[in-house]
Amino acid sequence: MARRMATKVYRLFRNLGVVGYSSKKNIFGIHPLVVSTAYIGLSIGLCYLLRRAVKSWMSDNVFRDILLEFLTTLEMCISFFELIVVTENWGIEAYAIFLFLLVLIWERTWTDASACPYTALEEVIEGQRDYSNAALRVFGQLAGGLVTFSLVQLFWAMELVHTHKGKAFEDCTADLQVPMCMGAFIEALGTCLCRLVGRWLSFTGNKFASLINALCTTVIVVAAFDTTGGYFNPALATSLKLGCEGNTFMEHFVTYWVGAVIGSVAAYYIFNSQKVQDYLEGFKPKTE
Q1: Could you write out the DSSP letters of every residue in 165-191?
Q2: How far apart are CA 113 and CA 235, in angstroms?
Q3: Which residues share a beta bridge with 245?
Q4: How far is it, in rounded angstroms, from Cα 41 to Cα 109?
Q5: Cys-Cys with 145: which of 68, 112, 161, 235 at CB 3.0–4.6 Å?
Q6: Which residues contact 15 (CB under 8 A, 6 or more apart)?
Q7: What does the pLDDT look like over 95-129, one tens digit per residue?
Q8: How would residue 51 be classed by pLDDT, with cut points 50, 70 and 90?
Q9: Residue 205 gets which letter from DSSP?
Q10: Quick one: residue 205, left, alpha or beta (phi over 0 = left, psi -120 to 50 = alpha)?
């Protein structure tokens, strides 16, 4: 009875394309995309549980903030390293779908961390945080980003599926396909647009804010994918592409750090300008 049921389940999974691949190249013959999805999901789940533990066991102080930023950035960068594999094998469409879903998940689970350096700078400008606290949070983000590949490499080195074959020790190449100044402009513009959308949605209290934000983020990232990679996050870009063949340190820094920070600061001042605030008054949620 049990054997018959197992056979039926296997046939169902085979018809769905979950299994049936060569078991010599893919663990248990599982579809590589299923393995990549499971790996991303497991990473998100473990990092979420670790953040819950940190919040429960540590009092609210700067060391807790650093650790939360470390774990959040680690979670984000692990996901994007695996998205490199997804994109190489299933194209930009698969990347866009994963990114859309990830943004939705992270918006609901990243309550006490941002995994993005320029948000700490924005809080300094707004007077919500001092420079030393912001710098420590950025340190936590960079630490999380820089240790990520060592963990990813361990997983890739097992080569559980054929899409991971050789990935652990493969030389990385830069995503910047345009001159440095143009790349910095693209990263600045994309960051500015993302932050303006986020601020507008927060201001209006739109009930579909999460979906709109995820959709806009995905569209903006995909639009820049073939020029800079569309990172719009210095910690993410540093984790995935610092030191890769094709860019100097200066090109990387100006494009992904200077560009993104300029875009973030520009979004802050644009959104808080008097003309924009006057215009947005019409979008304010009505209170009874």
Answers
A1: TTGGGPPPB----S-HHHHHHHHHHHH
A2: 13
A3: 173
A4: 13
A5: 235
A6: none
A7: 999 999 999 999 999 988 999 999 999 999 998 88
A8: very high
A9: T
A10: left
